[in-house]
Amino acid sequence: MAQSSQATDGLSSIPALLQRNAVEFGHKAAYREKEFGIWQSWTWKQAADEIDKLSLGLINLGVEEGDFVAFIGSNRPHLYWSMVAAQSVGAVPVPLYQDAAADEMAYVLDHCGARFVIVEDQEQVDKVIEVQDQLHQFEHMIYLDPKGLRKYDHTRLHEFDHIQEQGFAARDEFTPELERRRAKLDYSSVCVMLYTSGTTGKPKGVVLSNRNVIESARNSAAFDNLGPNEEVLAYLPMAWVGDYIFSIGQAYWCGFCVNCPENPDTMMTDLREIGPTYYFAPPRVFETQLTTVMIRMEDASRFKKWLFDTFMEHARNVGPDILDGKPVSAWDRVKYLIGDLFIYGPLKNTLGFSRVRVGYTAGEAIGPEIFDFYRSLGINLKQLYGQTEATVFITVQPDGEVRSDTVGVPAPGVELKIGDNGEVYYRSPGVFEYYFKNPDSTADTKDPDGWVATGDAGFVEEDTGHLRIIDRAKDVGKMADGSLFAPKYVENKLKFYPNILEAVVFGNEREKCMAFINIDLSAVGNWAERNNIAYSSYQELAGHPKVLQAVQEHVEEVNKSVAEDPMLSGCQVHRFLILHKELDADDGEMTRTRKVRRRVVEDKYNDLINALYDGSTEIFTNTEVTYEDGRKGSISATLEIRDAAVVPVTPQKVAAE
Fold it and tell me: Quick one: the chain helix, strand, coil %, rounded to 5?
């Protein structure tokens, strides 16, 4: 794009990009939101006007330069506008996870010292009110949806529209001040503060500058030839760096349209209606969609199932090569075109991927079989490797060099190096400024030369320059015999099976590996219904003998696959159990981005781990759980422990450091 040189032409902040877009793309759609089944649309000019009115309203309310403004809610144009309005008045936006419990929010709100909070609805208002006594700097809260809030005390509670109206009424008084503040913003100004997921402790506030966000957006947009005609669906948590860079950074740099679904329940329908050209999802979303497809095919007629299996087998053989422009025989191309007409095309349309030109997955490693499935359909799905501290991009996969076993080459402007212990380090324009109120962690993570420790272990292939990630550096260890222990490698293979939602593998410094399994209630429940198996709960289904047998077969198939890798063959799972409950963020077992808190799980279920290793065939356990309304309860169960067949091998020992 011709815009690649404009970062120095006064476009040194997100509000500056907004002003550019209001002029250059004034009548082009900038935001869409589905409400009551109807898509509402705002042009860039209209969005700029809405943001200006809110900016004036924030000044009128008393927002000062340097203040922290928190945002809580699902993906809504008004909340995206609010973040840019906060930036426009010199404040720092701090988005929070909307599904977080009140006490989790209290930590972030208190840690950043937010004076102002902008929320979506009554649910979020209630959470803030519940903990407001702990927030010594909190002053005002603004809400979008007034439903249910009429009788609340409005001394410090304000409706979004009213703040805009008050700002517009005082425009003559405050416009000079708004223009002064906006003009002061430059590359070094703080753009946003995003909190890490906190897999090993309290979340850390990652401070990103305009330089971090705009340079990352500019470089990544040029890499994938993104332009103003892209369509994206904004459905991932606004507190996650991925949503921020796609829905604000790249959207404002390129001038493309951000579409917000009505709610999580309508997301798939909304995805099909929009037909995004640029799409991002973590592996779990792709896994869930694939599970849904497989469930539907199990219910299809014998002929349809045969047709699907036949053409999908062909797609797996030649689809990725056709997508990458590699040579394929004429007959294979004809057969693929027939498959596209009857199978692949309709399936992509059902998934909402008919128009996807560039698709990405990141956050965790995706199972190679899942990854290859989507690429075989002709969907240009690629992997990227990134972090909040990198403003997302560390490595990306160029078109024609897409592989399931690597995360690509260094993104534009990124340098990589591998430490003596195998840890991956990077340096780039996207490297975060610092951790808020945490100079020690900043110094531990980023050295004086700007190199950042990722916490991941990996290596760069000499012949291709592609980075391969083995696992989290802190999770990679050694078995008792000195062979490599990399649990994520095995867990990802297990999660390929539609029946398995989550897996946690143990074995560091032990002679054998063991595993916890969570079944996928949707997939296994569908199987139970087809086979007339009655069940009343997750726990009852998880303990059914046929479910245990099916999972055992999956574990043994994974063991055969793991045994083929001489470095990791010692990671075969010898024994496993199916947990009596799903791992849950509300119980502290996962982060809000659905990453397992391995240490928490180890401590919480230590009795189950001991039972796996002491040869027990079953164990009774009682576990405290947290319900959606915050109440505590407990569930008990007697869990069956099963042995899994392993392939005899002699694993390679890891060289001594």
Answer: 40, 25, 35
Length of the chain: 657
Residue 641 · residue 618 · CB < 8 Å? yes
Q: Examine domains 2-280 and 477-643 and report if their fold is the same.
A: no
Token digits of residue 280: 């991002």
How far is Cα 584 from Cα 602, in angstroms, rounded to an integer?
Answer: 14
Q: Which long-range contacts (CB under 8 A, 24 or more apart) does 97-100 make?
A: 97/237, 97/239, 97/240, 97/592, 98/72, 98/73, 98/74, 98/124, 98/237, 98/238, 98/239, 99/237, 99/585, 99/592, 100/592
Distance CA 466, CA 411 (A): 11
What whole-number distance in Å separates Cα of residue 485 and Cα of residue 507? 7
Q: Are strands 573-578 and 513-519 parallel, antiparallel or unpaired?
A: parallel
What is the C-alpha to C-alpha distance for residues 231 and 283, in angstroms, rounded to an integer? 21
Distance set, CA 84 to CA 55, 247, 260, 274 (Å): 9, 12, 17, 24
What pLDDT does 656 receive? 44
d(CA 619, CA 639): 5
d(CA 536, CA 542): 11
Per DSSP, 324 falls in state T
Cα 580 to Cα 541: distance, rounded to the nearest angstrom: 9
8 A C-beta contact, residue 377 and residue 347: yes
The architecture CATH gives domain 477-643: 2-Layer Sandwich (3.30)
Mean pLDDT by 10 residues, the chain (657 residues): 46 96 96 94 98 98 98 97 98 95 93 97 96 94 96 95 97 97 97 84 92 97 96 95 96 98 91 96 86 81 92 94 93 96 94 95 80 94 95 96 92 94 92 96 95 90 89 78 86 86 93 95 88 90 94 95 87 96 90 84 94 94 84 91 91 57
The confidence score (pLDDT) of residue 221 equals 97
pTM: 0.83
**Residue 531 Rama label (left phi>0; alpha psi -120 to 50; beta):** alpha
pLDDT at 5: 38
The HSE-up count of residue 493 (CA atoms within 13 Å, CB side) is 22
CA distance 638 to 618: 7
- Give the number of other CB atoms < 10 A from CB of residue 445: 21
Q: How would CATH label the architecture of 2-280?
A: 3-Layer(aba) Sandwich (3.40)
Q: Rounded distance, CA 37 to CA 365, Å? A: 35
**Nearest by Cα to 625 from 582, 595, 594:** 582
Residue 255 near residue 274, CB atoms below 8 Å: no
Q: Where are the domains of the chain?
A: 2-280, 281-379, 477-643
Q: In the structure encoding, which two tokens stand for residue 221, read together?
A: 């947009």
Q: How far apart are CA 633 and CA 235, in angstroms?
A: 31
Residues 638 and 619: beta-carbon distance below 8 Å? yes
Partners of residue 116 on adjacent β-strands: 69, 140
